[in-house]
Design goal:
The chain contains seven helices and eight strands; from the N terminus they run αβαββαβαβαβαββα. It has 245 residues and is α/β, with parallel strands linked by helices.
Length: 245
């Protein structure tokens, strides 16, 4: 048996124990935010499976629309039931394909863009981003300038990452940019301080969990979706099966 198979068995076993001993008995309200990245592009650096088949994504949306209400990631108040928010990181070109389905099904989503990647191979161009900005169901946020791990760089570099990316996106979209997502889920106390100083009003993490009125608005929770996730896996993630790690 491979190491990967053993790790999966351990992960599933711990998830089963966690969910059945605790999570399934706890009422969930607020929003469960899902992270997507790419939609079919063959990426040389994708060893984890962040690029999912666009038809699988479509099936995810149909399932979600039939079973949940949607909201933006920042909608954490006045909800007495569980809602779903869709977020997309990095700004890959095939986000345009995903946006077609999201627009078709009238599903709100937030797109976090790494600005140094704009116009490069596999990534959105300025014109692409301007078109997405026009969609009523799309909010644009920063994903840094270079996709650096904010928790591992200097304060000056964090400032540059957040400041420069914000300016670029505001210039392209013609609107204020108030949200960001931490690349690699990496942040520290200085990151949050600088984000507040630069007038970011909220930030998305990679910490699993539900967002509600008690959530830290600079550490909004999100659960990542990968290529191998089928509907049953998606359901587990929504129900908090893997929130233990």
């Amino acid at each position: 048996m491979s190491k990967l198979s053993v790790n999966k068995i351990i992960k599933e076993t711990l998830g089963y124990i966690y969910y059945n001993s605790y999570k399934r008995y706890k009422r969930q309200f607020g929003n469960r935010s899902l992270i997507y990245h790419a939609f079919g592009s063959k990426l040389s650096h994708d060893t984890y499976g962040i690029s999912i088949n666009i038809n699988d994504f479509k099936n995810h949306l149909i399932f979600l629309k039939n079973n949940y209400d949607f909201c933006h990631i920042t909608d954490v108040n006045n909800s007495n039931k569980l809602k779903i928010s869709i977020t997309i990181d990095d700004g890959y070109k095939d986000t345009l394909l995903a946006a077609e389905y999201l627009n078709l099904y009238k599903i709100p989503f937030t797109l976090f863009i790494t600005t140094d990647f704009i116009g490069k191979k596999h990534y959105l161009s300025k014109n692409n981003i301007q078109e997405l900005c026009k969609l009523d169901n799309c909010i644009i946020g920063s994903h840094g300038k270079t996709h650096a791990k904010f928790g591992m760089i200097s304060k000056d570099n964090i400032y540059k990452e957040l400041h420069d990316s914000k300016l670029v996106l505001e210039d392209i979209c013609g609107v204020q940019i108030y949200g960001l997502a931490y690349p690699h889920g990496s942040y520290n106390h200085e990151t949050i301080k600088i984000a507040k100083k630069l007038d970011y009003l909220w930030a998305a993490s990679s910490i699993k969990g539900i967002n509600n009125k008690y959530s830290n608005k600079y550490l909004l929770n999100r659960s990542e979706v990968i290529r191998t996730d089928k509907i049953k896996d998606l359901t587990k993630k929504i129900n908090g099966f893997y929130d233990y790690y």
